[in-house]
Amino acid sequence: MDELLQEIDKFLPCKTPDLWLQNAVENPELMLIDHANCEKKAASTAVNLTFRYIDNFDLLNKMSRLAREEMRHFEQVIAIMKRRGIVYRQISASRYAEGLRALVRANEPDKLVDILLVGALIEARSCERFARLAPLLDAELESFYLSLLKSEGRHYRDYLALAAAVEDRELIDRRLTVLSERERELILSPDSEFRFHSGPVA
User: Fold this and answer.
1) How does pLDDT run across 34-72, given as a tens digit for each residue?
2) CB 146 within 8 A of CB 130
3) SS3 helix, strand, coil % of the chain, rounded to 5?
4) Which sign does the torsion angle of CA 20, 25, 27, 30 carry?
5) Which of 113, 121, 145, 187 could form a disulfide with 134 if both were Cys (CB 3.0 to 4.6 A apart)?
6) 182 half-sphere exposure, CB direction, 13 A CA radius
7) For 83, how many CA atoms within 13 A lie in the half-sphere containing its CB?
8) What DSSP string runs through 76-143?
9) Which pLDDT belongs to residue 202?
10) How sure is the predictor about 81, in pLDDT bands with cuts at 50, 70 and 90?
């Protein structure tokens, strides 16, 4: 696991700010609600890819497994919410995923490559945040978030491997430079509302 986290630290353009960690500790209800939403969205993205790229059997298998795992995580999050008496209510989405997807190119195969690289960044960031948050939370949430690291890390690697099967490594690295710079901006710049993938809220 240490090797995975070191790999992710090298992959991501920056570390999560300490202020965001403080925001999360101070807003556990919002964190869990948005975490549940993130798991649903991740599953939805994976399922959508299985409809759009039906000729890619490796993608179909990896995304099918990913969707099942994300929905299982969703079930685990809402079970924790139920035990804690947290009402699952509608909240606005963060700017993070949309900010990254705004850079996705329109034509194939560039579009698929960008979608996969955005997926890798999102999964890597989730993994990094779970690892950094876990020691700051109560025993139940610490154990739960640490249990997610292996699967989230595999999802990050799966997205990268699928992109590498479509595009040359040098071109992927160039594209990651562009996407990573946007990711850095979204993670480090102040945000108006706390969310699981938000920037820090003063």
Assistant:
1) 999 999 999 999 999 999 999 999 999 999 999 999 999
2) yes
3) 75, 0, 25
4) positive
5) 145
6) 19
7) 9
8) HHHHHHHHTT------PPPSHHHHHHTT--SSTTHHHHHHHHHHHHHHHHHHHHHHHHGGGS-HHHHH
9) 86
10) very high
Could you count the other beta carbons within 10 Å of the beta carbon of residue 94?
21
Q: Which residue has the tokens 């807003």?
A: 27
Average pLDDT over residues 131-144: 96
**Mean predicted lDDT score pLDDT of the chain:** 96
Side chain identity, residue 170: E
Structure tokens at 172: 């992927």
Count Cβ atoms below 10 Å from residue 98 Cβ, excluding itself.
10
Q: What is the pLDDT of residues 5-24, one digit of tens each?
A: 999 999 999 999 999 999 99
